[in-house]
């Protein structure tokens, strides 16, 4: 099972929205994954134990795993591309 | 009518709000099953928040009372944080109606060309619901509350338009603005402050490294750890250690319960949010369809601006500074707790104006946090009343009242509530102010920030 961490400023507000979409998409394409939420401040020790980070906030340091920008989910533009990128990372 | 309104009040927000949400969801053509699911979940979110706030009061109330007894500090107004503030806002009678009112004002202002921002971040309409709810109380008028929410939206849009060139350049986002009720009012403070700082030699060039601050103070950023540490410090000060057995029990219980509140309170809000996602998306689609060809900024949550190293470093340093301010500022009665974790949202839009300079950001941040404590103290009366009306029982503990640093301590929210106290005359003046601001931002204000943006270096990404 893959583990995805969705991070934003509060660990709640925008990440809930993104996590909801990522979870539904992964389910529909048959990828077994657990999607969790955190704040960007929680990343200061990295994202060990996760396969991928999706962030609506900026992640400027190296967290050890790929980071996908979650802005598309908020604006509604480029959502399919972002989901494809997430899927691509998890299928590797 | 009176009997009905009395019935709704006695029913409480947790049981009444689901009806309003169900109605909305059906109106924007959600299937009835989904609408019902959303509606019930909103009620559940409410009950969850109420339970966790109960834990907060049970443990922090007696501690703040003991603190007042042992020292000459009166910090008996508890900072219940943005999760509770948002719940109070949406739970008030004005609450859920703020969403259609805010959307209508936004669509009208875009249509007549007074704003470029289309605020699709419906969750954050709670900020205008909050001022609406408070004004409905102080002016004793539901209509005044709705009008207030509309004017508040107009002011947020003007400030979002105004700051957009700076934000877009610093964070590197195209076509986006941040009409976020917590963050955007502070650009009004940061711009003149930055002008002043440019003229103070020591502040002009001083540099601090955000990475080393993050390494050293990073622990303040983890809400649960912060909660436990705060619990130990407040507990030790409040209960002392005269009776090692009883006092150590009291201190450790306070610590773990405060850690629990920091984790659980936002989680409960997530339940409320999940319920609103489908409604929010349907409304977004309806509004966006109306302006397919116009150049607009998409208004988003300032969460997308959190995470810049300078924002995080500034916020981490402001945690101990805010606690210290709460103790030393004469007349402050607010005990900062839950919103210490929300400081990044207060500084997110100030940092780009200070060009990512941490020393300037901390000095500017210290000023607005100090001011915020006084405002939160002044707002606690009406906020406690609003909490009481939605069924959060603050009076059951030693706490004398509640407030929050986010929105409860917000200068714009305070200004709006003050206007509301003067009822329709005040609201008329406020509406005139909003209109003048929108017009100014379109003209001279725009040129002013565009000149400023030329000097802003985009944020460094490692």
CATH superfamily of chain A: Response regulator
Secondary-structure element pattern of chain A, one letter each:
EHEEEHH
How far is it from the N-terminal to the C-terminal residue of chain B, by CA?
Answer: 61 Å
Number of domains of chain B: 1
* Named CATH topology of chain A: Rossmann fold
Unreliable runs of chain A, pLDDT <50, ≥5 residues?
Answer: none
Strand order of the largest sheet of chain A: 2-1-3-4
Parts with pLDDT < 50 across at least 5 consecutive residues of chain B: none
The major pleated sheet of chain A works out as: 4 strands, parallel
The coarse overall form of chain A would be globular
Helix content of chain B: 55-70%
Features:
heterodimer, A: 92 residues, Rossmann fold, 4-stranded parallel β-sheet, 3 helices, 37% helix, B: 462 residues, mainly alpha, 3-stranded parallel β-sheet, 18 helices
Description:
- The complex is a heterodimer of chains A (92) and B (462).
- Chain A has 92 residues and is α/β, with parallel strands linked by helices.
- In chain A, 37% of the residues lie in helices and 23% in strands.
- Chain A contains 3 helices and 4 strands; from the N terminus they run E-H-E-E-E-H-H.
- The two termini of chain A are 13 Å apart.
- Chain B has one domain.
- In chain B, the strands form 2 sheets. A 3-stranded parallel β-sheet of chain B has the order 5-1-6.
- Chain B is mainly alpha-helical and 462 residues long.
- Classes of the chains: A alpha/beta (92), B mainly alpha (462).
- At the A-B interface, helix 1 and helix 2 of A face helix 10 and helix 12 of B.
